[in-house]
Design goal:
22 strands, Hypothetical Protein Yqey, Chain: A, domain1, four-stranded antiparallel beta sheet, alpha+beta, Alpha-Beta Plaits, 4 domains, 29% helix
Length: 438
């Protein structure tokens, strides 16, 4: 199965709460359509175009770079703004005003239209069964891997391993401000443009020689941070707090999201009779295998706070929570930077979510001969990842020759592997086949 084979195969549109958009207000609201560009880049470009601070541009949320997204962006500016504005891979048009800054609280739902391609015809029965099951019962509310773009393969002189997954947020917890800045300035991402990769290479080679680094900087915020380091070469803490606030907060939240995922994975193991692992960038999702409503009832109302110094841990996850923090060698009291402008998020997330308005249609895939496609539409609450829904409906044993992933093993609550069913192989020998549809 292929997701995002074409940009228009993954479309997301924000549905705002009634009354968010008004005729008058100090913020001008654009409906922006974008693809192949992330939300923060669009917001930065709007700020540059209108010659206003980056802090005067607001969005309801961050949308996937590799999707066609329709989202709302509010701009605080006294002068009259142009009706239309556009940049590379995005365009926006004024739809009204608002008196408040936009944030996720303004979103009622996110509406998705997704096309899944290159599906073997023999998988269709299982896909449909899975869609019906997940539509009815829901799925674990993980943060998906696109959330972890700032958790980079990174190395520095303090580590023996040449490559590890490293979190800026954890460096901040450990008061390793220089390490946090190193990841920010040096760690590469597959999505980095060539000029960004070139600058990061220079930052690796010339680290500490701030005047030489400053000459190579092009981004306004990079220049601001490096200018400070030229004046105060070893004040890495203050330099970190000069990173653009929304980006710095995102860095911190990513580590909180990682811990949330680990807690939820352990909770799924405990609440469902059978489960399986689904690997991703920074670990493994744990999904229930063929859940029923009695198991879902044990988790659907559980809320898990992101770790912060004032977090109140519910009894349902207290033991798991404490074990994960101990494993990470951190404590809740450490989740506080001491700076109200850039600090760890104080929020609570549902452990379980359910999609609404689910519809699907099966057709021939015009891009893959002999294969099928599923045109899928549904809506989700803000902050819930459509890609997690898709992972939950994917057959454990794909038949498509293009999908070369290992077949997940299914386990019971004690961690013992479970044989789901057996099928006669062509040579007459018995072999174990894992499948949700049997």
């Amino acid at each position: 199965m292929k997701v995002k084979y074409k940009p228009e195969d993954f479309v997301v549109e924000e549905i705002l709460k009634e009354g968010t958009i008004t005729r008058d207000g100090r913020f001008t609201v654009y409906l922006v359509k974008k693809q192949m560009v992330d939300t923060l880049s669009v917001m930065n470009e709007i700020a540059r175009r209108f010659k206003i601070p980056r802090t005067s541009v607001y969005s309801c949320g961050l949308k996937d770079k590799y999707a066609v997204a329709k989202q709302y962006i509010a701009v605080e500016k006294k002068e009259k703004l142009p009706r239309r504005i556009e940049g590379e891979n995005w365009e926006g048009e004024i739809v009204g005003n608002t008196n408040e800054t936009l944030s996720s609280r303004n979103i009622l739902r996110n509406l998705f239209n997704i096309t899944l391609r290159d599906i073997h015809p023999d998988e269709m029965k299982e896909y449909e069964e899975n869609i019906k099951l997940v539509s009815s019962l829901g799925f674990p509310n993980y943060f998906d891997e696109q959330r972890f773009g700032s958790a980079r393969h990174f190395a520095d002189e303090k580590m023996n391993e040449p490559e590890i997954i490293d979190f800026i947020g954890k460096r901040v917890l450990m008061k390793d401000w220089e390490g946090a800045l190193k990841i920010h300035f040096q760690a590469l991402s597959d999505s980095d443009r060539s000029r960004v990769k070139k600058f990061k290479k220079i930052m690796r080679e010339k680290w500490g020689r701030w005047s030489e680094c400053l000459v190579e900087a092009q981004e306004k915020n990079d220049i601001e941070v490096l200018r400070y380091l030229v004046r105060r070469p070893n004040d890495f803490r203050s330099a970190f707090f000069r990173i653009e606030a929304r980006l710095a907060r995102l860095y911190l939240e990513v580590y909180q999201n990682y811990i949330f995922n680990k807690i939820l994975a352990e909770l799924v193991k405990k609440r469902f009779h059978h489960h399986y692992f689904f690997p991703y960038f920074v670990g493994n999702f744990v999904f229930p295998y063929k859940p029923d409503i009695s198991h879902v009832s044990l988790i659907k109302n559980v809320k898990i706070p992101l770790p912060h110094k004032d977090a109140q841990i519910p009894p349902e996850v207290k033991e798991i929570y404490e074990d994960i923090l101990k494993e990470e060698k951190v404590s809740l009291s450490m989740f506080d930077t001491g700076d109200s402008r850039i600090n760890f998020a104080k929020s609570i997330r549902n452990a379980w979510e359910r999609p609404d308005e689910v519809q699907w249609k099966i057709q021939e895939d015009e891009h893959h001969s002999g294969m099928k496609k599923i045109e899928l539409s549904f809506s989700l609450k803000p902050g819930t990842f459509a890609t997690i829904f898709i992972k939950n409906i994917t057959p454990l044993k794909p038949k498509s020759e293009t999908e070369k992933k290992p077949i997940p093993k299914v386990y019971d609550q004690s961690g013992k592997e479970v044989v789901i069913y057996k099928e006669q192989s062509k040579d007459g020998k018995k072999q174990i086949i894992i499948s949700r549809s049997q």
